[in-house]
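Notes to self after the Tuesday call (sharing in case useful).
The group wants a holo model before anyone commits to mutagenesis around the pocket. I volunteered. Ligand is zinc ion. Logging inputs and output together so the record is complete.
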Amino acid sequence: MPTVFVRVFQELNDHLAPNRRGRRLEVNAAPGETVKAIVENLGVPHTEIDLITANGESVPFAHRPADAAEINVYPVFERFDIAGLTRLRDRPLRDPRFELDVHLGKLARLLRMCGFDAEYRPPFDDPALIDRALADHRILLSRDRELLKHKRLTHGYWLRSLDPWRQLHEVLDRLDLRARIHPFSRCMSCNGPLEAVSKSEIAARLLPRTARYHHEFKRCTRCDKLYWKGSHYERMLARLPASKPAGRNDDWYPDRHPNENPDSNPAPDPDAHSAADE
Ligand SMILES: [Zn+2]
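Result:
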């Protein structure tokens, strides 16, 4: 009976019993047992696994490790960057895109606030979510483990937290996205990219007070909503998990009323900017 040593990395530890996390585990494998079976027996779902190495070499799920093999198990997100046997974690991710499960409307808005492409759209049934994630090469974010275990799905992440801000921290941490935060470059309402627009062009849509104090504006290229620098900006930025990246000047405040339910994801309203006028 081979004895192997298994170390799982990052969030995969969440699937282990607390006293086994972050440790090199000695596992007595059955004769001929595959690494997939060994790791799954530890409790780690295959959809969250991206790469398994044995003694430093990338191996397939069907690999049968030799006695005393050192097995490392890495999470699924790294699939974006690996080509063949490339090591994980040392390479930057491409721009990730997200598809969000129902009940994650608040997280969708927060991801958009940070500039990430985060679609949150019906229908929210499992096949539709998976189809869109696959077709668009999006990471499916969900609180539903069963959804993420679906065979067809290649990129999914199970959110540990119930709180939208903590969920945002989770996503930024797991994908190492802090350096990619690009505040207010994307519409919080509809996920459309924002473009700069001249004040004269949208002057007729501004309330007098807004027109008096604000001079730089952005417009959603999808729903036409207006965004401008505002006093809430500092407060929102302070809640972002990372400070504004150096060299950027994206001081944009979305024109959302502070009391608006951020999870309501309302239909785009071109006149909604007036609600946030100060
Ligand atoms: Zn929009």
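Two things stood out.
Residues 187, 189-190, 192, 220, 222-223, 225, 268 surround zinc ion (CB under 6 Å).
The chain has a mean pLDDT of 78.
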